[in-house]
Specification:
Order of helices and strands: HHHHHHHHHHHHHH
Helix content: 55-70%
Distance between the termini: 53 Å
CATH architecture of the domain at 169-229: Alpha Horseshoe
Structural class: mainly alpha
Radius of gyration: 20 Å
């Protein structure tokens, strides 16, 4: 199938048919960011929520100078919590270190768990060690999904100081929490991590035990390399 021209995509984005606008947005994945972003901006305020969501996601994958301020504005000011969550997620894809502050504010101040979840995930994507305090606080949230996000993110930022904080989830009733823990520990080389992974490798849920075994192999290789240096 032939890739439509920019003019054709622009015309399709003006269509009254939401399916046509959605297809036009999807076709931008092969277009360079500087050409795609002006077209994405056409549907950022679309009446169709799914199209708005797609457009916001696309901004995270097509980084230009315009994307960061647009996403921060949506994160901090849009009345729809789903849109704010989408903006938080897209900021993580941008991997712009400036996003640390707005994402941290969103975690502390937004009242919707989905926004806070997206903010925690994106803080991990930024690989910024400053996220330690935010993510450790997320471990005390009442929502289990925030525990999953925070544990994964602490692994992403390779935060060795967080090991003791996350090890308390080794016996969590939620197997996804235990799986995220097993995955995160693979990025946190220490004897405590290795010991916890040996325990999780015997977990009754196959996903948890498999994740622990993969992490344990990675950890043994990394610790072995450190010892040989």
């Amino acid at each position: 199938m032939t890739q439509p021209s920019l003019e054709e995509i622009a015309a399709q984005l003006e269509s009254e048919n939401s399916k046509h606008r959605m297809l036009a947005l999807a076709s931008l994945r092969h277009v360079a960011p500087e050409d795609a972003v002006p077209l994405i901006k056409k549907v950022l305020n679309d009446d169709n929520l799914q199209i708005r969501s797609m457009a916001i996601f696309a901004l995270g994958l097509k980084p230009t100078e315009d994307c960061y301020p647009i996403l921060v504005r949506l994160l901090e000011g849009d009345p729809d919590y789903g849109i704010r969550a989408d903006a938080a997620g897209a900021l993580g894809y941008l991997e712009d270190p400036r996003a640390f502050e707005p994402l941290s504010r969103a975690f502390y101040e937004d009242t919707d768990w989905l926004v806070r979840f997206s903010a925690a995930v994106s803080l991990g994507n930024l690989k910024d060690r400053r996220a330690h305090d935010v993510l450790v606080q997320a471990l005390d949230s009442p929502e289990v999904v925030l525990h999953q996000a925070a544990i994964a993110a602490l692994g992403e930022i390779r935060d060795l100081e967080a090991i003791d904080h996350i090890l308390r989830f080794a016996q969590s009733e939620d197997w996804l929490v235990r799986q995220r823990l097993a995955e995160a520990l693979g990025n946190l080389p220490s004897p405590k991590s290795a010991s916890a992974l040996q325990y999780l490798a015997k977990d009754g849920h196959p996903n948890v035990s498999a994740a622990a075994q993969v992490s344990l192999r990675r950890l043994n290789e990394e610790l072995g390399e450190e010892r040989s240096v």
